[in-house]
Q: What sequence folds into this?
């Protein structure tokens, strides 16, 4: 019976991990959307947009996407 309980606990922990990672991916996707919206805003202003800001936002988006890929890899390995 104890082994069954341990397995159930392990299974629940795995599910919780999975859910947390899935939620993290959603949050990261929202972050990316926010950054992209900010980029769009910069591009639509008539002024010459700040290259540094554009570069930084693009870099942040790339980093967020990389983090999503890593989490997705972990999730794939968990199955």
A:
């Amino acid at each position: 019976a104890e082994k069954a309980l341990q397995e159930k606990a392990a299974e629940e922990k795995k599910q919780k991990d999975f859910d947390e990672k899935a939620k993290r991916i959603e949050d990261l996707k929202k972050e990316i959307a926010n950054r992209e919206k900010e980029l769009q805003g910069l591009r639509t202003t008539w002024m010459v947009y700040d290259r540094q800001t554009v570069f930084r936002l693009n870099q942040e988006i790339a980093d967020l996407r990389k983090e999503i890929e890593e989490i997705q890899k972990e999730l794939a390995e968990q199955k």
Q: What stands out?
A: The chain has a mean pLDDT of 89. Residues 2-78 form one domain. The chain is about 90% helix and 0% strand.
